[in-house]
Structure formats: C-alpha cells, structure tokens
Specification:
By secondary structure, the chain is of the alpha/beta class. It is built from 7 helices and 12 strands. Its main location: Golgi.
C-alpha cells in the first residue's frame, strides 16, 4: 500500500496554477440534505453506483446521486448498523455516543463514508479514510456530502494524528491485512485509540468457517491478546475489542512477548513522516 500513501510529486508533475471547477459544476447541496444526495455533475465518475448497486452504496437518480445509507456490510442502512454496534456494547437506548463517552471515531476503508455521515446525528464526529484505489476516489463522494474524510492508507508512515485521538475505530470489510509485518497496522490503530477505546471489526474472518478465514481469525485473536485487548462483544458478523485502561496487563506479559513495548524515547505524538513501529505505546504516568 506504500504507493497509495500521500507524497510530494516530482516538480514536473506539480500544479502551479488555479484549478477551475469542472464544466457545469453546481454549488453543493447544503447539509443535512447533502448527506443523502449530491449533484451528479460535481462527481462525474458514477461507475461505483453500478458496481455497488446490490449493496445500497449510492444510486444515480436523474441529475443527482442519492445515498440510501448502505454499505458492503450494512446493506439495510448505516443507522441500523450503528444501533447494532451500540446494542452489542449495551449502550443506553442503542446510541453509540454512550452519553457523551464516545465522541470521535476513526473509520478505516470508509467507502463513500455513510457510516461517518450517520454518526453525526449521534453527536459523534468520524474521520473517514480511504485510498484512491480500484474504486477510484471514493473520498470525493464523502467530501461532496459534507462528511469529514481524507485520502490515504495505512501503509508505512504514521497517520497524521497524535496518540489517543479516537475513542472508537471501525473497519467494515476494509480489505486490510492486519497481520502483515508483525501486526504493525493494528498497532498503529492501538496508538490512535484512547485508554478503554474500542475497535469494531466486521469482516468474514470474524465469522466465516472456511479454512483460510479460520486461520486469519486464530492468528488475529492471538495478536490482540498479546496486545492486551479483550473482546467486549462478538455477535453475528462483528467483533468489538476494547483496549486496556492501564499499563497493568503490559507489565504482566512474559519477557520477550511480541509485539514489544515501544522504546522510552519514542514520541507517540510525532507523526509527520514518521515510520510506523511494530510496538505497543504504553500509557504515560499522567494518563
């Protein structure tokens, strides 16, 4: 995924001019209507609507693109899926906000960001992340809808957020190999999550019974156990892990357990161009 990471282009490929809007561009529809519909002319690549038509991602309707709220894992709507996650965690009234305890969410591989869009009505701000991959620039749809999002990947460099930035992380069929390079990508999520933070993982590995998915699930379960994460809930096609609140579990691990704790001179808040490390960031004394 390194070739998808943000980088400075060579001088001959840089733009030294103002980029005009595309022909026929219209003033974007205002929020909250924009969550559900945008002007088609503003986003001229609509093949994704046909490719994902069976998953309710979006529908071309005349001069607009309409977003029914579906996704690869939640065909019947992000709102129902979000309530399902809250119900799994026994949150009051099935509201993921949990009475103000969850305010920031990081959505990995977000597609057109319907998950993040529907969280806003629960007073939760989600930062949605997706690459410019085979589905082209999905983030363009998210931004046109008015949903916080940016183009990027979990690759080799730390994501541009200080440690403990999010209370909840989410991956719904995000097509990420979490086991690669000693679990370095999952450890980057660990750096971003606050003490007691959650990671909701909706993917075939969490429920499928074929040999390959069972292998991945077994190895991933062993990895998160060594990271001191616990299963907060597991139901149907989703598992939710929770991070420890203190360093106690880290201190009780057997010597030589991998992943190791990060070096004492490692600054978990240094992010600009800093390579990821396959290590666990322990909590400081003030946390």
């Amino acid at each position: 995924m390194e070739h998808y990471e943000r980088h400075c282009p060579q001088p001959e490929r840089r733009y030294n001019c103002l980029i005009p809007p595309p022909p026929g561009y219209k003033v974007p529809i205002k929020w909250p209507r924009s969550r559900d519909e945008v002007w088609q002319v503003n986003i001229p690549h609509t093949h994704l609507a046909h490719e994902k038509s069976d998953q309710n991602w979006m529908v071309v309707n005349g001069d607009k693109i309409v977003f029914p709220g579906g996704g690869t894992h939640f065909h019947y709507g992000a709102d129902k899926y979000i309530a399902h996650l809250a119900n799994m965690l026994n949150f009051k009234n099935n509201i993921l906000n949990n009475e103000g305890n969850i305010r920031t969410v990081f959505d990995v591989g977000c597609g057109v960001a319907s998950f993040g869009g529907y969280l806003l009505s629960s007073d939760i701000i989600a930062m949605s992340l997706a690459p410019n991959d085979v589905h082209q620039n999905q983030i363009q749809f998210a931004l046109e809808r008015g949903i916080p999002a940016y183009l990027g990947v979990l690759g080799t460099k730390r994501l541009p957020y200080p440690s403990r930035s999010f209370e909840f992380a989410h991956c719904s069929r995000c097509r990420i190999d979490w086991l690669q390079r000693d679990g370095i990508l999952l450890l980057e999520l660990d750096r971003l999550l606050r003490p007691g933070g959650y990671f909701a993982y909706s993917s075939p590995e969490a429920y499928a019974q074929d040999e390959e998915d069972l292998r991945i699930w077994k190895e991933m379960s062993a990895l998160v156990e060594r990271m001191c994460w616990k299963i907060a809930a597991k139901r149907n096609q989703t598992v939710i892990w929770v991070k420890p609140l203190t360093n106690d579990c880290y201190m009780k691990r057997e010597p030589g357990t991998r992943p190791p704790l990060c070096r004492s001179d490692d600054n978990p808040d240094a992010v600009w161009g800093v390579p990821m490390e396959a290590c666990i960031t322990p909590y400081s004394e003030r946390e």
